[in-house]
């Protein structure tokens, strides 16, 4: 009887197929999107709450036809995180850019018209000759996990580096980063933890959210719903996410392009100026471009904004 049980156990082991390991940065779903109609269908299928995206201005998607766009899901800390991958339409090897979106939860999602920089505009960057990848972050845009606004979600950005390494068209020896608003904060936090980034561009960057919470009390109330530990020690938690307090920890060999509107009510221009002075103090190379009467999204300056970004990457990537 014992011999029979042993044989049965061995047979079961032979019949069971080993599961595939969950590797951080591994793409597990990749769906090609070939046009605006497919994009709209994809976002409704992916996340029902984003039906508001049907209000998108179609003109923001004029670059779609010259690039390849994929909705992706990848592993990050074992979570299934959603995002997008964009490639130039012509075969070849291209420098790569990680884009860090702004906002939190639905607000600022790449599948929402609230985004400062939308997917159609990232297609402009891909069209210029860059492989672009963007995460929705955990807890956002249909991703698993919990939003932490600069906490464990930084791993979702770091895990895009091995993801790009597996993309044949991406030259990760020429890797840039691009962030807007919260995405600027995310970019600075990422720079502290990797030496793979060669150049950075940020717009309306959140550099000191300890003061943003005072200027805009509604933000603090919003953050209290998802930032871990904020109720116990608000200032220290926000300080850890505010690059102006730890500029000395940023790399001195990653040139930064900073784009800021003087009429920005979300991130005040004076905060960005103070941050630039700190960069200067620590001999971190940067270029600051101020747009007169520019709002947080720099709407109305987009052509110039992308001209600046593309020239920056052409110089340093």
From TrEMBL:
Alphabetic keyword roster: Hydrolase, Signal
UniProt xrefs under Pfam families: Peptidase_S9 (PF00326)
Organism of provenance: Agaribacillus aureus
InterPro entries to which the protein is assigned, alphabetical: AB_hydrolase_fold, Peptidase_S9_cat
Keyword Transferase recorded: no
SUPFAM superfamilies: alpha/beta-Hydrolases
Domain Peptidase S9 prolyl oligopeptidase catalytic: from-to ranges: 122-317
Record protein name field: Prolyl oligopeptidase family serine peptidase
Signal peptide (UniProt feature, chain positions): 1-21
């Amino acid at each position: 009887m014992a011999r029979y049980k042993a044989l049965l156990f061995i047979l079961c082991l032979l019949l069971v197929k080993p599961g595939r390991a969950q590797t951080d940065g591994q793409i597990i779903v990749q769906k090609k999107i070939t046009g605006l109609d497919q994009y709209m269908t994809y976002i409704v299928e992916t996340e029902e709450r984003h039906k508001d995206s049907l209000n998108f201005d179609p003109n923001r998607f004029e670059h779609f036809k010259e690039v390849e766009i994929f909705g992706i899901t990848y592993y990050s800390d074992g979570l299934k995180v959603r995002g997008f991958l964009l490639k130039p339409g012509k075969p070849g090897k291209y420098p790569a850019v990680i884009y860090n979106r702004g906002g939190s939860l639905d607000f600022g999602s790449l599948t929402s018209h609230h985004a400062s920089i939308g997917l159609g505009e990232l297609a402009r960057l891909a069209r210029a000759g860059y492989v672009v990848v963007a995460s929705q972050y955990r807890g956002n845009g249909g991703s698993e996990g919990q939003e932490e606004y600069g906490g464990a979600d930084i791993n979702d950005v770091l895990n895009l580096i091995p993801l790009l390494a597996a993309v044949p068209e991406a030259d990760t020896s020429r890797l840039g980063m691009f962030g807007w608003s919260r995405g600027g904060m995310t970019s600075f936090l990422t720079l502290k933890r990797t030496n793979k980034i060669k150049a950075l561009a940020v717009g309306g960057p959140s550099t000191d959210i300890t003061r943003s919470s005072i200027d805009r009390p509604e933000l603090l109330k919003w953050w209290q719903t998802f930032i871990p530990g904020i109720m116990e020690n608000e200032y220290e938690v926000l300080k850890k996410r505010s690059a102006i307090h730890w500029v000395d920890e940023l790399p001195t060999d990653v040139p930064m392009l900073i784009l800021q509107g003087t009429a920005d009510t979300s991130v005040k221009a004076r905060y960005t100026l103070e941050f630039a002075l700190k960069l200067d103090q620590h001999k971190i190379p940067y270029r600051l471009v101020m747009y007169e009467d520019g709002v947080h999204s720099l709407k109305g300056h987009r052509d110039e904004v992308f001209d600046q970004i593309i020239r920056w990457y052409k110089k340093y990537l």
